[in-house]
């Protein structure tokens, strides 16, 4: 799987996890969803994604976006 698809899959998993935690644990986990959304927005504008940097370090092959 390419780096782009890995980052998108990770973002999706994190959003779904934060929604589940908000539903079943505490409404304060909404802030995790907000953080994920802000991170996605900033990476769209700046091209820097911390998750992409991490996945690149562990050896995921690069894709066209990152």
Automatic annotation (TrEMBL):
Coiled coil: none annotated. The keyword Transmembrane applies. The chain crosses the membrane at residues 7-25, 31-55. It comes from the Bacteria. Pfam families: YgaP-like_TM. Residues 2-57 form the Inner membrane protein YgaP-like transmembrane domain. Gene3D superfamilies: 6.10.140.1340. Keywords: Membrane, Transmembrane, Transmembrane helix. This is DUF2892 domain-containing protein.
